Automatic annotation (TrEMBL):
Residues 12-67 form the HTH cro/C1-type domain. Keywords: Membrane, Transmembrane, Transmembrane helix. This is XRE family transcriptional regulator. Pfam families: HTH_31. It comes from the Bacteria. The chain crosses the membrane at residues 109-131. The keyword Secreted does not apply. InterPro entries: Cro/C1-type_HTH (IPR001387), Lambda_DNA-bd_dom_sf (IPR010982). SUPFAM superfamilies: lambda repressor-like DNA-binding domains. Residues 80-103 are annotated as: Disordered. GO terms for molecular function: DNA binding. Residues 94-103 have a biased composition (Low complexity).
Length: 264
């Protein structure tokens, strides 16, 4: 374990905040932590509590498993549990017979587990995945609270980004419909009940693709892919005021091709 684990956690938290577009003030308004606290957590000047990591993932819609696994390793470093043990004093000669093999076996098992845990985090796996547990929904000692403090509702959400306004957090979104275009592009109609808003999330877009969401009132929201392979693998239209039963129309417009439309 090295100091880079703490630095890596702070870097990951900064990256999540950067992708979300949320300011420190917006984070403070949607979580139980102040603006100055978030500044210290993201800069690595102060250890971030586990609940703060979960809260950041909640308001940005990021999966929390990998980040919480990384937090466990960083917490061990912060608390000193990961420091090397002091050099042992004189000891008796290594045991022989039946006692020696179990001790050697336990030592090898301890080393193997440590290597597996560090490797799992480096590979993007959470600790639950490593040991065969379900990453979501399984029994846990302490349930992390879902942060649900949206910054808009209904018409006030019109034209705004779902994540930035706190409408795209974990546990807040329902996918009402999923469509796959003829060339594999995927379009999802999403709904946030607390925000009374809908929007479209698209994956597989290439430069120049346009996705448009139209409501019965004629209002429309659209997003255009400025480059192939959008950051995070998807792009989303701004939100439109609507509920789960609102009739919508989703259209994919590709350069040089006819529009491909689907009912919401």
């Amino acid at each position: 374990m090295t100091a880079s684990v703490c630095e890596q956690l702070a870097e990951e938290l900064r990256a999540i905040r950067g992708r979300s577009g949320l300011s420190l003030a917006a984070l403070a308004s949607r979580t139980p932590y102040s603006k100055s606290s978030w500044e210290r957590y993201l800069n690595g000047r102060k250890p971030a509590p586990r609940q703060a990591v979960a809260a950041l993932c909640g308001v940005t819609g990021e999966p929390s498993g990998r980040l919480l696994a990384l937090w466990e390793l960083a917490d061990a470093e912060w608390s000193g549990r990961a420091r090397p043990a002091p050099a042992p004093g004189p000891t008796a000669p290594p045991g022989t017979g039946r006692d020696a093999a179990p001790r050697a076996g336990r030592h090898r098992w301890s080393v193997a587990v440590t290597v597996l845990v560090v490797g799992a985090v480096a590979a993007g796996l959470g600790l639950p995945a490593l040991f065969g547990e379900k990453p979501e929904g399984g029994a846990r000692g302490v349930e992390e609270p879902l942060v649900r403090n949206p910054g808009c509702r209904a018409d006030a959400c019109e034209g705004h980004n779902a994540v930035t306004m706190g409408c795209g957090g974990a546990g807040m979104i329902t996918t009402l419909a999923t469509h796959t275009a003829s060339d594999g592009r995927r379009l999802e109609l999403r709904h946030a009940e607390l925000c009374h808003a809908v929007w479209v999330r698209a994956t597989g877009l290439t430069q120049g693709d346009q996705v448009e969401l139209t409501l019965p009132t004629g209002r429309a929201q659209q997003v255009v892919a400025e480059e192939s392979g959008a950051p995070g693998g998807y792009l989303a239209t701004p939100m439109a005021a609507g509920n789960s039963d609102t009739d919508t129309r989703i259209c994919l417009n590709r350069p040089g091709s006819s529009p491909e439309c689907f009912p919401g």
